[in-house]
Amino acid sequence: MKSVREIELLAEQAHAGQVDKVGVPYIEHVRAVAAGLAPLGDALVMAGLLHDVLEDTDWTAESLLGTGVPTQVVAIVQAVTNQPGMAYEEKVRYIAANPQATLVKIADNAHNSRDDRAAQLPPETRERLAAKYRAARAVLWPAASRAEIETIVRTVNPALLPELDEHRAD
To answer: Which among 74, 106, 130, 147 is least buried, having the fewest CB atoms inside 10 angstroms?
Structure first.
């Protein structure tokens, strides 16, 4: 079985040369997602590091398994990967049915929702994505425990903490 550091190196290799919507090396996004998941265990950290590998690179689930990525981690990554023909809203509901995938997607959503990242986008894109991510949180957050959400959000995007009471009854 691979270590977290080996998975991070695999993610670095897989995302080499890629940049996000604001021009930052893509590995920084997956590292931020993984950092929010660190208190929740190595499997989730690994899934955070690899969460976009299947949709944004040539890697497949089979190739990940073949390099020694744990089966549980590959299953989480598959659960958060976009599926052809599946609308984003449907994907979020699908993810919310899987507790571990939900936590990875919460961390991903929190990082994508950071004001410092959004500020670099054109206003219309910023507004569209903010609405999309807020709608996703309305589905994802009720599917996780308050403690897990707080753990992730405090690390990845503390500005979202005031929103927690809107989506959680506990």
So the answer is: 147
